[in-house]
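Priority: low. Protein: Integral membrane protein. Input follows.
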Amino acid sequence: MPERTLALPGGARVPVVAAQWHHAFGVVTRGRVQLELRDGEPGPVLRRHAGFWLRGTGVRALRNPGRRTATVRILTPHPETRRNDMTSSTDTGADLASGRTRRPRRFRRLAVTGVIATVAAMAATPVAAALARAAGVDFAIPDGGDETIPLGGFAVVTGFFSLVGVVIAAVLLRWSARPAERFLWTAVALTALSLVPPFLVGAAATTSITLVGLHLLAAAVMIPALTRSLRAATS
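Result:
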């Protein structure tokens, strides 16, 4: 049985040429390989020792969602064994259909996790702000006419930016081969940027430092929850 090995570096995408896979059978020998479906959406992730046929499935490409190189051993059966292709292809098609069914569930789980984390962050920041106010922090913003930030304002701002984070996570789940890693880096970068404005509004040092702490508190609730949800969705 002729065979060859296909190597996919981390994050690589290899288009599927139908003629080359007409009678071929693939086996993942190292790493993970994700199937890209005919509509461009991410399909099932195949792990080591997983076998698959692509004939008749409409798979457009093979992706490596990990960092390390993945390898696929491609076997071409002898003519007398090719009569089994249709049955195997049908099985693989069923697996891909199952993968399409799971995709909405992944987004629903991410949305539920995001909403729960958002509510938790919206509850945590006003409580922390109330404790800081009781300790003497006035939350007065000189550049805003010396107005004091109300406790409800912390919940509103936290909720808005938390939901922005949920949207970013959903976009990365849809389009990125490594959504959890991309989200983590993006969220950390945006959180770092959010720590600058509190020092630019002319507030007292204690107010600025407390505002930074509230930003970090919200991030500590949202980022781990969404990152875990993205990892679970792509595992």
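The chain has two domains: 3-77, 103-234. Helices lie at 85-134, 151-175, 179-194, 205-234.
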